[in-house]
Structure formats: structure tokens, C-alpha cells
């Protein structure tokens, strides 16, 4: 009656919570079993969207063991350094009071997570035609999240009149941003930029992507890793069409040396300069 206490206290116990829908979790708090000598001194936090495929909460890129309780009744509260977006949580005790058993009372803090999700079957793509009035040649910001089990696929493509193009593509579980400035016949090879970030991104977990382009400065961020670079040539005046395609290239064989595999998986919250692309698609 005083909280959760498994029949056997060993390293194979866990307490799982189903929040009913994807939720943004910002903090957790624990106590020991009420009026007992049962409390957990350290634990891991795992999270999942499906209840099948689990990921561990990390901080500073290392596995993070939470310090638990030192008695049965004091509350130990942790504000998470970065919020978790998930439906399922698992608390996994690592150590507990040597003179007692595993015992936990738990509080989870957060709010409803608002999201727009669209699925791609590997044969489709989503084309966004830009409003020419809203175009600013000096600034472009694209953000999205994706999850997939496929190691290859095109996430984003934008074509130009004279052979210019920008492509973001998953190749062997890594994400590459390829910027091709013009026709290679008229431009030297240094007009081509290829940046690769991340690995094992085909793990069926959500990964976030951000491309920021101000003048000739480009920031490419995958999850929490950012690559800053300066684009040579006339990048701020790229002769690009007023069209972005997500999930594939609409006309096959149009440009260069791409793997040609369309994306198979899910996108969430696609934004181009603050415009919600999935919401626009839903409204036709």
C-alpha cells in the first residue's frame, strides 16, 4: 500500500508508466515506500513511444544514473536538463537501501506534447511551393524530426535552375547535407559541400534536424551536434526554385550522384521559416 515494491529485489526490476499519449516530460521526483526501510538510492530512466523500443535518458552524452533517496519519505526532485517526449517511461532501480528492499513512489511532471506527424511509404514525397513574397534570400531555417528503420533515404531536396541543389539524405544510418553550387563544369569542385552528422539514425527513435542559413554561414544540427561552416561562392544568391520536396526527389535522375532512395518512415513538425508544412498539407 505504501508504493511500488517488487516481490524480488534485484537488478531486473522496473516500474513502467503509460501516459496514454506522447507527453513532454520535464521533471521526475521519487520517494521510498511509505513508513518502511525500502528506498532506491540510484536508478535509470528509460523512455519509449511504442512500449517496445526503449531509449535511455542521457545527459552530457553519457548514460545518466539518477541519485535516488536516502530515506523513505523525503522527496528527491530532478528537473531534466532536456525534456523527454514519450508515451512510456521506465524507472529501473540500480541500488537500494542495503537494510531494506526496492521501494518507490514516483511523480512525473510535464505537459501535453503538440505534434503534427506524417508517414512516408518510400514511394511518396511532399512538395512545398514557397510564397515568393515571403522569400528572404539571406535567411533560411528548416527544422523537422524524423524516425525510420531504413538506413537510406532522401529527407529534403531543393533544385536550382543551373544545377544548384541542396539535398539532405540518410546514407547507411548517417545524415548528409550536400550543397552543390552550380554546374561542376563552370564551378570548381570546391563549390560542392558535403557534411555528415550522426550515426545509427535508423533506430526507430525520433531525431531532430535543423538547417540555419544566414548570408553565407550555415549551421547544420542533428540532435545536439552542430556543424558550422561558411559556404563559398554565391551561396546567398543560390538560384533555387521556389519549391522544396520532403521525402524524395519528384523528378528522378534530375541531379548528380544521389542514391535515389525515397524516405520510408515518419516526419514530425516540419517547419520552413516558421511555416508549418504538415499543417498546410493537411489543409490541402
TrEMBL record:
Question: What topology in the membrane does the UniProt record assign?
Answer: Single-pass type I membrane protein
Domain F5/8 type C, chain residue ranges per copy:
1-111
- What cellular component terms from Gene Ontology apply here? membrane
**Which compartments does it reside in?**
Membrane
Entry keyword annotation includes Hydrolase: no
Family matches, as SMART domains: FA58C (SM00231), LamG (SM00282)
Query: Membrane spanning segments where?
Result: none
- Domain (Laminin G) spans 117-284
Q: Which InterPro entries match?
A: ConA-like_dom_sf, FA58C, Galactose-bd-like_sf, Laminin_G, Neurexin-related_CASP
Q: Name one Pfam family in it.
A: F5_F8_type_C
Q: What top-level branch of life does the organism fall under?
A: Eukaryota
Q: Which CDD domains match?
A: FA58C (cd00057), LamG (cd00110)
Keywords for the protein's UniProt record, in alphabetical order: EGF-like domain, Membrane, Signal, Transmembrane, Transmembrane helix
Main localization, broad class: membrane
Family listed: Belongs to the neurexin family.
What is the protein named?
Answer: CNTP4 protein
Identify the species of origin: Sterrhoptilus dennistouni
UniProt gene name: Cntnap4_0
